[in-house]
Amino acid sequence: MIPDKWEVLSKEHQKAYKYMLEKGNKNKMLRALPDLHEEAFSNINCLDCARCCKSHSPRFKQPDIKRIAKTLRIKEGELVDRYLKIDKEGDYVTKESPCPFLAEDNTCDIYYDRPSDCRRYPYTDEDVLIKRIQLTLKNSMVCPATYVVLEKLLELDKK
User: Which residues contact 133 (CB under 8 A, 6 or more apart)?
Assistant: First the structure.
């Protein structure tokens, strides 16, 4: 279960998470991720939270832009002009937060055509969790599922 103060606990555990992700048994962690991911999301409803959509922007790659523009029945250039900007890494991201496609009930207006980053977030069932440590640490303070998975990995790492 998720404690009420999970954000505070996640912040307090950042060094432990980092150490585990850098020095822990990567194969053991990778084997555990699918089950930990399923367990976390069996107790977490993203529609109750949507913190990722309220605070982050995914990268919008060209196939995403093409697909979303088609869904919205607008030209790709219009989608870019209206909703996107180029960040310091050279990626298209939303101009503002929360995401312009986030509805008031925390559903996504483009859910079936959302960017790949949105589909995969928070990467708790992928090797990205281990390979991109800074991203994982950041996600652990935004997404309760990431917090839960990292806490379970810490328990597993102690065994």
Answer: 18, 21, 22
Within this chain, do residues 21 and 45 fall inside the same structural domain, yes or no? Answer: yes
pLDDT over 90 (residue 2): no
Given a contact cutoff of 8 angstroms between Cβ atoms, the answer to whether 99 and 110 are in contact is: no
For residues 93 and 58, is the Cβ–Cβ distance under 8 A? yes
Q: Is the peptide bond before 122 cis (omega within 30 degrees of 0)?
A: yes
- The boundaries of the domain holding residue 45 are 6-49+121-158
Q: What is the DSSP string of 1-66?
A: ---TTHHHHHHHTHHHHHHHHHHS-HHHHHHHHHHHHHHHHHH--GGGT-HHHHH----B-HHHHH
The pLDDT tens digits of the residues spanning 87-114 come to 999 999 999 999 999 999 999 999 999 9
Tell me whether residue 1 is in a domain.
Answer: no
Tell whether 138 is covered by a domain. Answer: yes
CA atoms within 13 Å, Cβ hemisphere of 100: 13
Residue tagged 């008031």 (tokens): 104
Per-residue pLDDT, 157 = 80
What is the per-residue pLDDT across 22-31, written as a single tens digit (0 to 9) for each? Answer: 999 999 999 9
Number of domains in the chain: 2
